[in-house]
Amino acid sequence: MRNKILFKASILIFCFASFLACNSTKIAEKFNAVAQESSSSDTRGEWQSLFNGKNLEGWHVFNNQDTDGKWSAIDGTLFFDSSSDAEGGDLVTDNDYENFEFALEWKISPCGNSGIFWGVQEDGKIDHTFHSAPEMQVLDNSCHPDAKIKTHRAGDLYDMIECSEENVKPAGEWNAIKIIADNGKYQFYQNGVNVVSFEMFNTKWDEMIEDSKFKGMEHFGKYRKGKFALQDHGNDVWFRDIKIKEI
Fold it and tell me: Terminus of the chain with fewer CB atoms < 10 Å: N or C?
């Protein structure tokens, strides 16, 4: 009798152990699958391209979902053709971003003007990108009239803070920029140099707005999260290697 009891007990223990082993394997497999899926979908901290060099996928005209117009992808660049008879308008990303490192290269036509915006808001109450979003200026400093104004030159926080040094390259040459946004603190880099640093969403920021052309614009500089925009200022301009790393 004792041997029979021990035998049955051994069988029960073996079955229970097998059950645990089987389920532990399944749990581990599920855990690994979830972990891999999370890892593959979480691109935070990695550079992601925002322009595929072939078409305007991921972009659209501000307050207009169309992409047909003066903007096109040519030779791996995002090009604004001022001579085109098509409709223009600022080009914005489909997605919104908050904390990031954003980088691209730009070149401008002689005496040309454009700009790079972030925090852009799209709704029926906001008619232009600059009504909500600050701008890093894109400019031919050598001959555009805006170059006579200190805070309107290439690399400036437009109409608010001038560059610590003027290091923009001439029209027709590529300039590399980076905008870093980290919980309300911002840095501009132009051709490898930190040319502007500032903080938004505090008293000093409000004072800067009051001293600028954006005074009285109820939506300007109020948003931590929004779209990027490339400006249609009526001059030929090219952008390439547009990418972002969310932080």
Answer: N
